[in-house]
Design goal:
The complex is a heterodimer of chains A (288) and B (306). Chain A is 75% helix and 0% strand. Chain A has 288 residues and is an all-alpha fold. Chain A has one domain: MetI-like fold (Orthogonal Bundle). Helices cover 74% and strands 0% of the residues of chain B. Classes of the chains: A mainly alpha (288), B mainly alpha (306).
Chain lengths: 288, 306
């Protein structure tokens, strides 16, 4: 017994370096962030309650950024889930050269945004290729990145980068569905749709949840594309939360920063929690 | 009669199957073209001469080349294959514009240490998590997942505060240290290690192996594949970093190429494609050689509860 106890203690030693680092760089300062969000300034340190939150919430730039980011995520995440599920289904059917297609679909994952941003500009510029094609069909030119279509463009860029990753997750989930279950279903004359909806989607519910969460997290990184194409102050519909943070960092307004970070923390946690509950509701009878 | 009907039905089914396969394959090809075009274009364009580049894209980037007027067409011509293949862009980058090479070197100086140290710390930590599960450990692991899920908009504020109070704000360490302790590798590697049957480790401990020996002789060899796939994922992630340097490094001399590349667009469009390709080469090689590891690593991520 004492030997096991000793070993348990040792297993904590393995954890120690990582624990110290995570606490020093992520957890402990987060409490400082909470503290900063509740005082008026770092010098006088008067407790002001939720005044900073009210200020940030009422800040028009924060609202704009929040609405833009949320609107983008609400469109991009479901699309990313559905399209990558579709791609995984394509890969599951018997097509020739499957491993090549896997490589092709996955390749955008490794491309640094900075490397491909030039081509996006060539495509979506006012004089760019997409407009040339539109003109062929008699449609007018649009300055995509300075119009209300700008969000459409970044949804496309987001999907381009992330579909392959999601597809791999779905392929792994599809491969782990018990084969005998599918055989029984086909013996019972289940239609393909029934098999897909009642068996495959059910079995993949935890993967669908994971893909949705990862897509949500990655959707916040679309700032990279936007920033590298349009800089610090893009067209208003492309002004993302990260832009707001960058500009607030520049002005060193600790209170605003802290309150904004905590609001975002709450929103992300809330969204993840909701997805988790939804998955629990639909997939609970499958878990052992 | 019956058999003939049956044969006919079978034949019809076969034909329908073939048509289906053709349709699905065509869709896959279309997707593949969409996915690959931007990458292929970047690469082929890097072999164009500066005059061809500015002739094709001049109306976008409005290049002001030194000396002599360059013909700039009103519309943009996207060319898959250059009129004449030249390496002049690469010569300019490699011989005349050292700042891009400095930034490339910066990227290496950030990414390599982060990949190595993050993996080192993570292998230890995930052994700690995977061996002897307990309530406290589960709570801490959950905390790691939360930290992992937080976007940069949230985590950069704490990072900024710490680097200020440690006096490393604006230095390379402000990027490196949070990278070393990022919980992503811990999360993934713990999942790999939990697949190792406990009996294997217990048997070794009964035979008198101490924890370090179990870790280094049993766990590590079994996790080689996992380590490779996590290293690849971490590499891609940090090679593409944009948010952290913008906030933690006011001095743009320290910026990695992933941030600096965007600043080319206005001035030196003629070599931009070559720089883009040079920056693409390391992840491309890793991707081509390590695709199977990468796929395995991603597959393991699924199922956040595990």
């Amino acid at each position: 017994m004492t030997a096991t106890k000793k070993r348990k203690m040792i297993s904590w030693l393995f954890l120690l370096p990582s624990l110290l680092g995570v606490f020093l760089f992520f957890v402990a300062p987060f409490f400082v962030v909470i503290y900063y969000s509740l005082i008026d300034n770092p010098i006088q340190k008067n407790f002001v309650g939720f005044k900073n939150f009210v200020n940030v919430w009422g800040n028009s730039a924060f609202r704009q950024a929040g609405i833009n980011t949320l609107r983008f995520s609400l469109v991009a995440v479901p699309l990313a889930v559905l399209l990558s599920l579709f791609l995984a289904a394509v890969m599951e059917s018997r097509i020739p050269g499957r491993s090549y297609f896997r490589t092709f679909f996955l390749s955008p994952l490794m491309v640094p945004t900075a490397s491909v941003v030039l081509i996006w500009q060539v495509l979506f510029n006012y004089n760019g290729i997409v407009n040339n094609i539109r003109m062929l069909f008699g449609a007018g030119k649009i300055d995509f990145l300075k119009s209300d279509q700008a969000q459409v463009v970044i949804v496309v860029l987001f999907l381009w980068k992330n579909l392959g990753y999601n597809m791999i997750l779905f392929m792994a989930a599809l491969a782990s569905i018990p084969k005998d279950l599918l055989e029984v279903a086909s013996l019972e004359n289940a239609s393909k749709f029934q098999v897909f909806w009642y068996i495959k989607v059910r079995y993949m519910s935890s993967t669908i949840l994971f893909v949705a969460i990862m897509s949500l997290i990655n959707s916040f990184k679309v700032f990279r594309e936007v920033y590298l194409m349009t800089g610090d102050y893009p067209y208003s519909s492309l002004y993302m939360l990260q832009h707001f943070m960058n500009n607030t960092f520049a002005s060193l307004d600790y209170q605003k920063l802290s309150a904004a970070a905590i609001i975002m923390f709450a929103v992300v946690t809330g969204l993840v929690y909701i997805m988790y509950q939804v998955e629990n509701f639909y997939g609970k009878d499958l878990e052992g | 009669m019956i058999t003939r009907d049956r044969q006919r039905a079978l034949k019809r089914k076969k034909r329908i199957d073939t048509i289906k396969t053709v349709i699905v394959t065509m869709m896959a090809v279309m997707f593949a073209i969409v996915f690959l075009t931007p990458i292929v274009l970047t690469i082929t364009n890097s072999f164009m001469s500066p005059s061809e580049i500015s002739a094709n894209y001049g109306s976008i980037f409005a290049t002001t080349e030194k000396g002599g007027k360059v013909f700039v067409s009103k519309t943009v011509n996207l060319k898959l294959i250059p009129d004449m293949i030249t390496f002049s862009q690469y010569f300019t980058v490699l011989l005349k514009s050292p700042e891009y090479l400095f930034k490339f070197w910066n990227s290496i100086l950030y990414v390599l240490p982060i990949v190595i140290v993050q993996l080192g710390i993570a292998t230890l930590a995930s052994y700690g998590f995977a061996r002897y599960d307990g309530r406290l450990k589960r709570a801490i692991f959950f905390l790691y997942i939360i930290v992992m899920l937080m976007p940069y908009q949230v985590t950069l504020v704490p990072n900024f505060l710490v680097s200020r109070s440690l006096g490393i704000y604006g230095t390379r360490w402000s990027i490196l240290l949070p990278g070393f302790f990022s919980p992503f590798a811990v999360y993934l590697l713990t999942k790999f290690m939990k697949r190792i049957p406990t009996e294997v480790m217990e048997a070794a401990s009964i035979d008198g192996a101490d924890e370090w020996m179990i870790f280094s002789r049993i766990c590590m060899p079994l996790c080689k594949g996992g380590l490779a796939s996590i290293a690849i994922l971490v590499f891609f992630d940090y090679w593409n970093m944009v948010e952290q340097p913008l906030i933690l490094l006011p001095d743009s001399d320290l910026h990695p190429l992933s941030v600096f590349l965007s600043k080319i667009n206005t001035g030196e469009i003629s070599l931009a494609f070559a720089v883009a390709v040079i920056y693409l080469v390391p992840p491309l090689l890793i991707f081509l050689y390590g695709e199977d590891y990468l796929v395995e690593g991603i597959s393991y991520q699924g199922g956040i509860k595990g």
